[in-house]
Here is the input.
Amino acid sequence: MSRLFGEMRQVGIVVRDIEAAMEHWIEVCGVGPWFYAEKMAFTEFHYRGTRYDNFHFSIALANSGDVQLELIQQRCETPSVYRDFLAAGHEGMQHWSSWPEDYDAKLNQALANGYTIGQNGDSTRGRFVYLWNEGHPGTMIEMAHATPTRKRVFDAVRDAATNWDGRDPIRRAWPS
Here is the structure.
């Protein structure tokens, strides 16, 4: 557990082809089912302090035990930490995420400890932030506010994986 951010709950994986990535995790690793949103809905999105309204990210979620895997494919030219990651020649784990209920307190603590906001936004599930720490470049830290809606969706993703038998491996709707 991180004393600054809380428990690691998710590994964020930035990919160039989300369909191929889901197939890999299903066929090679036996992980699923995947809950896929071709265009993730955000109510607000900021990169390095600038607001952007024209963005298109595809997201897929699945669990392996209590750890959630998030596949992310950016499908637009909007500046983002995902584009930065790919432009640097990377593909794979881009961030790890905690889901604090005391989001504002954890965010203020991170900022007081030298982190800066690289990307942040809001959705019907709640707020999220990606934090930079330029003193040690590499995998970013994301915090996603543990709202009741987010907890309900993420619990359903975890529960679907618990006894998954391999059927219906890609589900094109978020759990309700």
